[in-house]
Amino acid sequence: VLENQDLPDSIKPQKVEFHSLNFNTTLHWQPGWAREARDALYFVQYKVYGQSTWQNKDECWGISSHFCDLTYETSDIQEPYYSRVRAALAGVYSNWSLSCRFTPWRETMIGPPMVTVVHSNKSIMVKLQAPHSPYKRKRGSKIPMTNYYDLLYQVFIINNLLDEKNRVLVYEGKDKVIKIQDLRPGVSYCIVAKMYMPMLDHSSAYSSRQCTVL
């Protein structure tokens, strides 16, 4: 068993990091190195860069999990934020572990678009839908990521399922419905798409494959 003066260091949370997808933002950390640390409870605070006072995150005050949802605390997406976590065990508190600075607009990952494929005899219609943020309009619908960024759709065709890597870019732009023409009947075609953000040179992951036989 650890001496009590070692306990604060040994339970101090490690690797405090923001993870963010489409502005759904979660703080993650790892427990301290002591075996006992798995029984620790955690306390999370956050603030905007430059503010002097830290805010408690009430839903993440004395929790046993290793993550905390800060989506609504970081909703001013141009602001830089910090968060910090400390652990408590047997009445002993660790020091705070600080995250890196996190600016949602610059650092959130963009998710892939939703893709729907409709085929006719020699062409494929591809319908694209950008991912949504968690933030809502006054009427209650979620705001699409295209409201926050200048985003392009990139659409790729896979002619040969044996060679998945052989994706051919057939469209890049903002249209939500595109038509791919002059295809061969009887051939299986698969479509994947991703979002591309020219300004920050970020791409999303690929969407799931939508396949059709003409």
UniProtKB/TrEMBL annotation:
GO terms for cellular component: extracellular region; plasma membrane. Gene3D superfamilies: Immunoglobulins (2.60.40.10). Transmembrane segments: none annotated. Coiled coil: none annotated. It is found in: Secreted. It comes from the Eukaryota. Residues 108-212 form the Interferon/interleukin receptor domain. Belongs to the type II cytokine receptor family. Receptor for IL22. Binds to IL22, prevents interaction with the functional IL-22R complex and blocks the activity of IL22 (in vitro). May play an important role as an IL22 antagonist in the regulation of inflammatory responses. This is Interleukin-22 receptor subunit alpha-2.
